[in-house]
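Sequence, please.
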């Protein structure tokens, strides 16, 4: 899929999720305050961070879709990785805020300051679970179509919110049933979930920004394409590196030394095109031909 269409998809998904997240944040914040639930208020803070994170995704998409220029001859795809890294740190910040809030409420309960949440808090959690799971699937599907790292990170941001809402629901229902400590404990569980998601996003993004090799199955696919060419006698070298959400490939192959220069050139050109067509994530493939000994 070309970069212009990819950018349109990211913008469409992002605008839709911003609207839904904003409305959901307001609903959960009101329900948390009116229903006296620290878990739901924490959940609302998490949803609010989703709104900010989506704007980061949109900015990253705009920058990464810029064409290659004189100062950036390899393109700007790594801006998507930078956007995803920013998202990860935003999630870490959200987790710390929620964790500190939950600990303070536990302290108040231990002092005898007990507040029991009402049913409105529980119903808002149910609504959040349904909406955020839909948003996760919607965003993840779009990310898979265009191979967008930042959009995939945003999808998991939605999934972490759905999981945190499950924790909120358990905490609120538990508190209503006579175990008030479960409400702030649920907020701490939410904190741990968000930290895990943030770590996974950060690890993936860093691997793409420091030229980590492509997954083994991708290299196996490339190797098989090469070996399908009978004139290729041996693969001397195969290197891959992630460049944002794209892949660069460097190959050295042995070809019969008796073949003419024009035949070798034609073979290498066909092989180059075949490798790039088999995987849309491959941005560039460089092939060097060595003569057989």
């Amino acid at each position: 899929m070309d970069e212009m269409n990819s950018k349109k998809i990211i913008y469409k998904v992002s605008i839709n999720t911003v609207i839904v997240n904003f409305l959901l944040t307001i609903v959960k914040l009101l329900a948390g305050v009116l229903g006296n639930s620290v878990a739901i208020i924490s959940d609302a803070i998490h949803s609010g961070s989703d709104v900010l994170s989506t704007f980061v995704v949109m900015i990253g998409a705009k920058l990464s879709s810029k064409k290659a220029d004189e100062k950036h001859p390899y393109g700007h795809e790594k801006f998507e990785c930078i956007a995803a890294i920013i998202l990860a740190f935003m999630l870490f910040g959200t987790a710390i805020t929620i964790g500190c809030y939950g600990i303070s409420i536990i302290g108040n309960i231990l002092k005898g300051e007990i507040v029991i949440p009402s049913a409105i808090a529980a119903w808002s959690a149910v609504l959040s679970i349904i909406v955020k799971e839909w948003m996760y699937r919607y965003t993840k599907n779009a990310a898979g179509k265009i191979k967008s790292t930042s959009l995939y990170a945003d999808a998991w941001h939605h999934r972490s919110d759905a999981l945190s809402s499950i924790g909120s629901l358990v905490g609120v229902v538990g508190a209503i049933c006579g175990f008030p400590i479960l409400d702030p404990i649920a907020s701490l569980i939410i904190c741990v979930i968000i930290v895990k998601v943030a770590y996974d996003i950060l690890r993936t993004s860093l691997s793409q920004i420091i030229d980590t090799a492509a997954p083994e199955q991708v290299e196996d696919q490339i190797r098989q394409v090469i070996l399908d060419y009978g004139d290729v006698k041996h693969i001397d070298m195969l290197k891959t590196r992630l460049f944002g959400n794209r892949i660069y490939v460097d190959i050295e192959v042995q070809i019969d030394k008796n073949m003419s220069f024009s035949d070798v050139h034609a073979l290498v050109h066909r092989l180059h095109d075949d490798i790039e067509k088999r995987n849309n994530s491959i941005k560039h493939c460089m092939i060097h031909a060595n003569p057989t000994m």
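Helices lie at 3-34, 38-64, 78-110, 119-146, 149-176, 182-209, 216-227, 261-278.
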